[in-house]
Protein: Transcriptional repressor
Organism: Comamonas squillarum
Amino acid sequence: MSTAAKTPQPELTKHQALVLQALAREANPASAYALLDQLRDEGLRAPQQVYRALDKLIEYGLVHRVESLNSFVVCAHTHAEGHDHGLVVFAICDTCGQVDEFLEPAVERRLKTWSKANGFRPSSTHVEMHGICSRCAAAPAA
Amino acid sequence: MSTAAKTPQPELTKHQALVLQALAREANPASAYALLDQLRDEGLRAPQQVYRALDKLIEYGLVHRVESLNSFVVCAHTHAEGHDHGLVVFAICDTCGQVDEFLEPAVERRLKTWSKANGFRPSSTHVEMHGICSRCAAAPAA
DNA sequence: TGTGATATGTTATAACATAACAAATTGAAG
DNA sequence: CTTCAATTTGTTATGTTATAACATATCACA
């Protein structure tokens, strides 16, 4: 189990590469429509084009969807082709929007145990914490 | 940390009670608009009325939002006023839509540990597994 | 009883996502 | 090669989820 089962990754299409680059330029998660706006000059015109590219990038494990924000981030764990890392956790700062991505094998094991015991066959798991990051907590009430 | 910090719970307003009842009637998570449709006869007319009621019900810990479905469920852990249960996990069947809700103190502890170590102050955490429930896994490819 | 604060009703619109179909591309069979 | 079915890509249209903004009503209390 991971954030999503991963598919072996062929060459990226032009749109997929553009969307991945655009997402990589963003410090924080971006919505499909924000990406579309970034990429109009590059020839993308419709939401479908972005969503289709994102679907593939997620399938290849290069991008994560942040469910609670309806938006997307590049996977922080750059990986050799075919390398499937484990369950990913997001810590999302509600003040500055920054997202920390980290791995939690212990959490993954625990959820796997429950699944086995209950006959549930998990395909993907999302763990998202909201709160205040250390920088914002320290900030002078700006 | 819990699915959300809980607020002491006053009397429910009429709309809040109606939304809670409607949600309780549903076997599976329901969207705000589905609830609105259920409640037109009861006098609800606009999405805001439903969303406002849901916001309060969530604040009181009576309802959970399922982020990955953009929908809502009544909390399975009926609780005495003010009782805050721990972190909640959802196991969502992508075949039949059924959702299992359970508690995972071990997962909660693990995430708390990370948060402490990283100066993150969590306010709410969502854990959602997608997959196939035991009944659907057993089903004759219906 | 006036008045400020809070809650509710309502309209309008924003933001996110996918259905449906047309056009182009690709690649295997003849 | 060339044809044609399968897949991918482009595009329009529409569906779904969520909130802004403002009007109206209700309530607590001076």
